[in-house]
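Entry type: protein chain
Record version: 2
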Amino acid sequence: MKKNILILLLFISNFSFSQNTFDYHKDFETILKQSQDSANVFYYPKLLERFNDNDDTLTNSDIIALLIGHTNDKNYRPYKTLKTERQIHKLVKLEKFDEATIKSDSLLKINPLNFSALMEKSYSYMKLEKPNSEFHKKKFMRIVYSIMSSGDGTNKKPYFVLNPGNGATLIKYILGGKIGIAGSGDDSNGYFLDILEMVTKKETKTLHFNINHATEKMFTKEEKEKIKNGG
C-alpha cells in the first residue's frame, strides 16, 4: 500500500479513537451553530486558522467541529469537487507529483479541508522529498484521526465525513482494503449513509459513513427552486 506509513500512524493512535463521544443526531446542529459564534471555542475561522498552523493543542473534537463548520461555507459543494479529486488521484498514480501538488493547492484554496487534496499533497510532498512534508502529513492525519474518532463504522455509529468520496478513499488508501459491495441507506434517525464493504486479506467488513450534510448541498437554493418549478 503506497501510504503504509499513514496506516501505521493510524494504528498507533487507534486507542484514542474510542474516546470520542460525538453523536451526529445530538451534536451536529449544536456544533454548527457554535461554529458561527465568534465567542465560541468552535468558531470556524479560528479553528481553521489553528488547523492551518498545525496547532498541537487541537483535539479530535476540535477537528470534528471544524469539519462541521465547513459545511456552512459557501464553497462547500462536495459533489462538485469529485471530478477534481479523481484527477488528483490519477496524477499521483502516474507519479506526476508536481502536477498533483498544484492541483491539490488549487482545490485547497476554496476547500481547505478536502480529504483527497490534503492526502495527495502530503504524499506528493513526501515523494518529492520537500522539507515541509511532515507539516502537511500532520495536517492530513488530523483529519484521519477525527474521522476514526467520530464513530465505529456501524449503522448506529457511522463515521462522519465531509465528502461522498471520503469513505472509499479512506478504505483504499488508509485502511488498506478494497471496495466490495457499495450502496447507501439511512440510519435510525433517517440520516443518509454511504455503505461500503471493505475487503482485506483478514476480513470483509461493512462500514457506514454519514454524508447527510453533503446530500443537502447537492443543489444551491436557486437550483432547488428551478427544479421545484420544473425548470
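Comment: The two ends are 47 Å apart (CA to CA).
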